[in-house]
Structures
1.
Amino acid sequence: MGTEKTQSRTQIAEKLVEAVDSKFFKTLSEPVRVQILKYLMLNGRADIQTIAENMPQDRSVVSRHLNLMQEAGILVCQKENRHMFYDVNGQPFIEKLVDITEKIKKCMNECCPDCCK
Amino acid sequence: MGTEKTQSRTQIAEKLVEAVDSKFFKTLSEPVRVQILKYLMLNGRADIQTIAENMPQDRSVVSRHLNLMQEAGILVCQKENRHMFYDVNGQPFIEKLVDITEKIKKCMNECCPDCCK
DNA sequence: TGCATTTATGTGCATTAACGTATATATATG
DNA sequence: CATATATATACGTTAATGCACATAAATGCA
């Protein structure tokens, strides 16, 4: 068993740790934010006022959630006049999820094939 | 535009909300727990004592984290004598991630194709 | 221009939840 | 009955959430 093999396994595992972005997961761990995601998927781009009207929380609270979701790469925003419009950050969001899934898959297969029996 | 189509979109979005299990995401949003996951992937099945020796936290804290990870379906545990062994819940863990990714993909494509341009 | 209105964000506060440390308890072993 | 392993509990600290209000920025109208 060469050092290369061990190095390789460690590197794969460390890439997994990098991929599992804690901010990203924390953002999706809050039910209110998932509801916001659902709303935007069903209704498309909307400003904060409109989104907040469809949530039980106050507009200021919704604003904070939207900002967090944007920082996590789940949403994008554009300011127009005095309105701030948010929308789902479609492709990058999907790609991030796929990337995480693939990295964990790879780590499973190459680092601990035993645990998948 | 029939009611069926709207219903269908709503149903797809609701399945997405169900899939984005907040407990699962919250569990993976804690860096310590990702480190535990990494350790188990690289070193395989281990008891709490051994895992805790490789983490900065106290054994009681590690025990709590391991319990949460098991409840979230990420790990499995088996009691042997006075030792509690934990291991990665390989296939189900992967399947859960793939399921979430696929549901979000589907929702993107069928609910808001515009947001993926 | 001046001022009220609308939209969004910032701030202070209380409440709740999570984490870590330390200690105590439970369970099994020798 | 002492020891080893794991879990439960109490406590302090920190962070997140929601509410209410204050501020900022843009708009509309007199």
2.
Amino acid sequence: MPTQPKLEDVARLSGVSTATVSRVFNAPTLVREETRKRVEAAVASLGYTPHFGGRALASNRTWTVGAVIPTMENAIFARGLQAMEETLAEAGVTLLVSTSNYDCDREAAQIAALIGRGVDGLILIGESREDATYELLERRGTPYVLVWSWRADSPRPCVGFDNRAAAAAIAERVVELGHRRIAMIAGITDHNDRAAARVDGARDALTAHGLALEPPYLVEAKYSVDAGAKAARALMALDPRPTAILCGNDVLATGALMGVREAGLSVPRDVSVTGFDDIELARVVDPPLTTVHVPHRRMGAQAAEALLAQCAGAPGPVNIAMEADIIERGSLAPPPT
Amino acid sequence: MPTQPKLEDVARLSGVSTATVSRVFNAPTLVREETRKRVEAAVASLGYTPHFGGRALASNRTWTVGAVIPTMENAIFARGLQAMEETLAEAGVTLLVSTSNYDCDREAAQIAALIGRGVDGLILIGESREDATYELLERRGTPYVLVWSWRADSPRPCVGFDNRAAAAAIAERVVELGHRRIAMIAGITDHNDRAAARVDGARDALTAHGLALEPPYLVEAKYSVDAGAKAARALMALDPRPTAILCGNDVLATGALMGVREAGLSVPRDVSVTGFDDIELARVVDPPLTTVHVPHRRMGAQAAEALLAQCAGAPGPVNIAMEADIIERGSLAPPPT
DNA sequence: GCATGGATTGTAAGCGCTTTCATTCGACAT
DNA sequence: ATGTCGAATGAAAGCGCTTACAATCCATGC
């Protein structure tokens, strides 16, 4: 097995020093064109690729950023991650992916592991996590960006949207159509600021109209179609029955659609259902979901760009808000008369 | 900013040499228990973590494996990737993710980049790619595993299932129900052995019954609901109209469902539709899809394990077949009489 | 003709960790 | 006591690359 060529081999073949070869890679403008050409030819003929470890050791950079997301099986994260990966790849940076499965301790462990691997920066989902974790980040001076959550006054770098306001907006729309008995199937809010903000937002809107949002009309369900269906069946058994169900995300809303149907009722004639996220599923189910469109891809790309800027030492805080608009489709209509 | 402690600091604090500290991490059995305890205490009190680059340089291992998939936005890859990540994480290995967007050249570039980063192993999707790429892999001695594709006589390590046989099985089932005019909306087969094998399998089954599968009854469509719908509309305009549409995957099948409906026809009364993959979507659309269940998670986990074994120097070829069974749901029925 | 200064290039000192080889330490047999 | 041998440890040589600093080259200006 022919051993890999090293920088030194390239240097010898092209008749320059290792320093020059290194510069061809890292600061080409410092090298005279003719010399550069010669080095590049040697690189090509040897099939040389820089050794990652040596590079990382000497430069103390890894050209790697880490992302810790709850799970890739959730389409919104998959999509965002995809956009991040593309953006980072353009800058020659690769993505190290870890998943926490919505478990705080596991997230903390993953973050520590990624830092240990010397990632140049970190992308994290949402802002609710232990202070100790943030301290670790600060102590090591590792740049990071929080995605999906956003608050105007967030003390941390974030790229996201106002979950609370968006949830309030869609709830407002439901009230506007004349609904008065409104239920909500929320995602699990524990340790999940996005899910919690969506509940708060919905409650904001209802309260403003003198309506309440409390159990049993407010239930939490795990992120799955079946959990959504089960929750909807329970809501349909309530007396009085709600005429609209706000859902914390499109997956739950899809389940709600099925649950309502199983209860022998029709959407939107008897009961309206709304989603959140606008994943592909929302367009495809019957009736298609009225939901909140979240620009997952753009958000991921922006977050990656912001992180890259931070790594490059860009000054100033990052606080980028994306908008999230309501998409009206067939699952929302006025209540039955 | 306090600089990170290094091996030497730990050594000094615990009164041993750097070699011993290193051994505590890499070969603890060589160190006397008492010494080990002392070193571990020093590590803890200093909050030491090994420097990744130094380690990679000296040991020539990175504890990292790479995966190049077409896109994370395809649920089947997201799911498989998730399983891989979990399996690798258990072994202390992290996953470097790249996407090719179904582009061969880009895939080759990503593979080269990952190898350059010194990944210990590589997970690749399918088997159709340039010989040069395989040569690169062999030359560098980088272990790899191909996933999603499988052939009994594959000369390369693979973990997958027999796409051709599975496609033949579901087509056979369609014929068995009495269909004679059978169309197929396939995925793009160029550079995609899975999509091509599914077409071949379907044709195998039809041919065995004296039926043909050719344009315009055989069309290819990009991986999207809309493309599936468009293809289905075109199929519905054909004379004679097919009574069944085999689809290369569930996303296309979902589109087909919409396309058929838009043509004013009903599934499965007028036209039957079958999918492939059994992603969540398949259960959720109306009618739910009869499809081929592929164990994406198990497959991903198996692939990761196989790769880990290869990296650890396990001998012998890898050739693991998963089964893929037909799941009967409402979208397939006998043809109209 | 010679000092000046920017543009290029070379020299060599690490970056933090692993690992080979040699050394030291003990326990045990002689 | 002395010699032997395995276990435990230390010394030091890199691993491949970056980069501060020094050296060299060459066009300019006086």
